[in-house]
Amino acid sequence: MTRSPASAPSGHEARSAETRAKLTSAAIEVFAKVGYEAASTRELAKQAHANLSAITYHFGGKKELYLAAAQEIADYAAGLIRPLTTVIRVQRFHQTYRLGEIPFGGDAG
Question: Which residues of 61-98 are buried (b: 16+ CB within 10 A; e: fewer)?
């Protein structure tokens, strides 16, 4: 049976995604503790429970892993901020058109 493009990822793809996630998570921790310069690729791989060559295979090198970790942090922060900016925009709209304040939680009644 062949796999359609929309089906679940293969075992290899799932393991690859898991390894990338472990490496970026470990990178966030290690870079936060010791900084970029002091973080060795050996320690990054060890903390991720991955082979040293996995960093090169998945990211190209330490710099690219650092950038992937920074992007993960930025995406997380954006996810936290996005709902707040929506609330602020709605409140400004209501104030601009003198609709009054709206309560948080959407309980207008």
Answer: ebeebbebbeeeeeeeeeeeeeeeeeeeeeeeeeeeee
> What are the domain boundaries of the chain?
13-106
Q: Is 58 within 8 Å of 19 (Cβ atoms)?
A: yes
Q: pTM to 2 decimals?
A: 0.71
Q: What is the CA radius of gyration of the chain?
A: 21
Could you tell me if 30 and 47 are in contact, meaning their C-beta atoms sit under 8 angstroms apart? yes
| Amino acid (one-letter) located at 109 | G
Instruction: Please state which CATH class domain 13-106 belongs to.
Output: mainly alpha
| Residue 79 C-alpha from the chain's centroid | 9
pLDDT digits (tens, 9 = 90+) for 3-22: 555 666 788 899 999 999 99
Average pLDDT over residues 87-104: 73
- The strand ranges marked E within 7-107 are none
Backbone angles phi, psi at 51, to 5 degrees: -70, 150
